[in-house]
Design a protein that fits this description.
117 residues, mainly beta, four-stranded antiparallel sheet, 10 strands, globular
C-alpha cells in the first residue's frame, strides 16, 4: 500500500497569525508566489490584501502598520492614500476609486487566521 502524495502547498491552508488584534498591527506574509500581503482585524472581521498600493505598486505598510492614526482607514505609508479596511476601496489620495487586491483568508474558532489560496 502506498501513502497518499503530499498535498500541493498552494492549496494547503497556511497559518498567518494566531493572535491578530483588532485595530493593531497587520500580519505581513508572502503569498505562495512570493508576493507580499497583509492581514488586519478591523471591527472584529479579518481582511487580507496584497501589500501593494494601486497608485505606485509599493507596499502600504511601514513596519506592519497599515491603519492610520484614527483607526478608521488603511493608509499607504508612502503616498498617504487611504482605503476602507473591509473593502479595500481607496477613498482618498492619488488612487481614489481604485482597490487593493483582496486575499482569501479564513479564521478558525480559536482565532487563528489562515491563508487558503
Amino acid at each position: 500500500m502506498t501513502s497518499p502524495a503530499p498535498s500541493d502547498t498552494a492549496t494547503t491552508p497556511r497559518l498567518i497569525s494566531p493572535d491578530l488584534a483588532d485595530g493593531g498591527l497587520a500580519a505581513t506574509f508572502a503569498m505562495p508566489d512570493g508576493t507580499p500581503a497583509f492581514a488586519v482585524r478591523w471591527h472584529g472581521g479579518v481582511h487580507g490584501y496584497l501589500n501593494q498600493c494601486p497608485h505606485a505598486g509599493g507596499p502600504l505598510d511601514f513596519e506592519g502598520q497599515v491603519l492610520e492614526s484614527s483607526g478608521r482607514f488603511l493608509m499607504c505609508a508612502r503616498h498617504g492614500a487611504i482605503f476602507e479596511p473591509d473593502t479595500g476601496k481607496c477613498v482618498g489620495g492619488p488612487c481614489r476609486g481604485a482597490r487593493l487586491t483582496p486575499v482569501t483568508l479564513r479564521e478558525d474558532a480559536e482565532g487563528n487566521v489562515w491563508l487558503t489560496e
